[in-house]
Amino acid sequence: MNTVTAAPVRAEHPALRPGPAKTWSDTLTLARRNLRHMAREPFEPVIALSMPVLMVLLFGYVFGGVMSPTGDETDYRAMLVPAMIVMVMFYGIAGTASGVARDTSLSVMSRFRTLPMSPAALLWARVLTDMLRAVAEVALLLGVGLLLGWRPESGAAGAAAAVGLLLLFRLSLVCAGVLLGLVMPGPDTASMLVYPLAFPLTMLSTSFVPAQAMPDWLAPVAEWNPVSSVVTATRELFGNPSLPSDSWPAEHAVLLTVGLSLVLIVLVVPPTLRRFARLNR
Amino acid sequence: MTDPDSGRARVQGFDTVGHGDQVRARIGLTGQYASVDELLTGRENLEMFARLHGLTTSAARERAEALLSDFDLAEAADRGSRTYSGGMRRRLDLAVSLLREPDVLFLDEPTTGLDPRSRMQVWETVATLVREGTTVLLTTQYLEEADRLADRVTVVDHGRAVATGTPDDLRARVGGLRLDVLVHDPADLDRTGELLGSALGAAPSVDPPGLRVEVPVTDRVRALMHASHALEGMGSRIADLDVRRPSLDEVFLSLTGHTTAPTETVEAVR
């Protein structure tokens, strides 16, 4: 402590405007930090993952007999598995938003600002971490699905397309979550806001019940709900049975999901970058 | 780097606005509140910030190891930094700001809220860094700290620099030495003041609650001789007699003329 003996590293200063290589290495450094955070405070990912699983167990086993449109409980549970994965993808937005809100409100941010690092790496690291998390979640939930009797009926290509679609959807939500986290006053607000919004949005869809079973004024809301499109598209690509519907969104579910995801990304990225640039000033 | 409200700042010749990256590569910063990642261990913090500074993975590992032992943190290296005491966290923060041996180190009230032992350790570290060629700019509310560490002190009062100089320069501004005489009985204060005033030829100021009479003097030995001669007749009624330099607290009070918000900037330049 009394003498600073560590070898000097003054030598030469690093590349002054961080190039792509430094940005990438900063991104990996920070992504590792995010993964450590997740491992040390796993409450949020665990809740985001377990709630949909519990809901599927509840609907699949408790209400299964009454709810199934075909009368076959196993069919109904197979139908719920894609809905379950979509819900988990959706709830992940809370983790993204609160992670970004925490980073930008934390005193560590003032430290980051004094470093010769690429500021954008903070955002890239968040996107990378949450996409890794999404891949792990999808893998885990497919395992749960197999245990529940769900099977991908469309072969490897169909299953790969379904997973790709889920990840594209998740990417658009991660982008939205980053913006949300930058706008929110703090990490708690971010997660407190997401659940009350996400819960009705996932329930008011064709995830669990066909739109025909709803009152006339509610049915179009559920049919046009983007969550319905994603769930229907996933069922379609996995070759699973869908809840009967002849609405336009249900018939063009894959197209609609890809389109919505891309539109969301295009809409959300510019304000995110503007907002983040202002933060770094 | 934040845009300035007005004016400009240069670090080692580089403008903070135009050449922020050049400046960032040369400075270290430790704020008033330790800005380390609380979910990471001490070692993970150091390695992460070293990587962000542009060190290779192996260089980062070595540097972290060296700083952990320099800063007495080797034992706690693999514990979460949120379990650290205030002093340990401050030391970790200081270690992080020294990862790349900065040319200029900024310390914002580095010892606020620390126990005396940790404060001493921070002081020793700063003194070592300055000896080894780092320029340190630190702010403090403790004038004793400024007196001890700084080559140049700037006194800031309500956002304005009111005086700059070495600690001795600043002392000289409010006059050289002080003769302090303490008595046992408040009734003796006036008599003591009169005797000292005529013996030393200067106006005494009396501090009744402190049972103290104070006279500004210039020569230490002459003052002590004259004073003890003048007070000889009072014998054991005198409790204490001493000549001292004014403290920087007194300097501050006389420079600002009030007691509120003593914020002060210190530069320990080399």
TrEMBL record, chain A:
This is Transport permease protein. It is a multi-pass membrane protein. It is found in: Cell membrane; Membrane. The lineage of its organism: Bacteria, Bacillati, Actinomycetota, Actinomycetes, Streptosporangiales. Residues 43-279 form the ABC transmembrane type-2 domain. InterPro entries: ABC2_TM (IPR013525), ABC2_TM_bact-type (IPR047817), ABC_2_transport (IPR000412), Nod_factor_ABC_transporter (IPR051784). GO terms for cellular component: ATP-binding cassette (ABC) transporter complex. Keywords: Antibiotic resistance, Cell membrane, Membrane, Transmembrane, Transmembrane helix, Transport. It comes from Nocardiopsis kunsanensis. GO terms for molecular function: ABC-type transporter activity. GO terms for biological process: response to antibiotic. Belongs to the ABC-2 integral membrane protein family. The chain crosses the membrane at residues 46-67, 79-101, 122-150, 156-180, 192-211, 253-273.
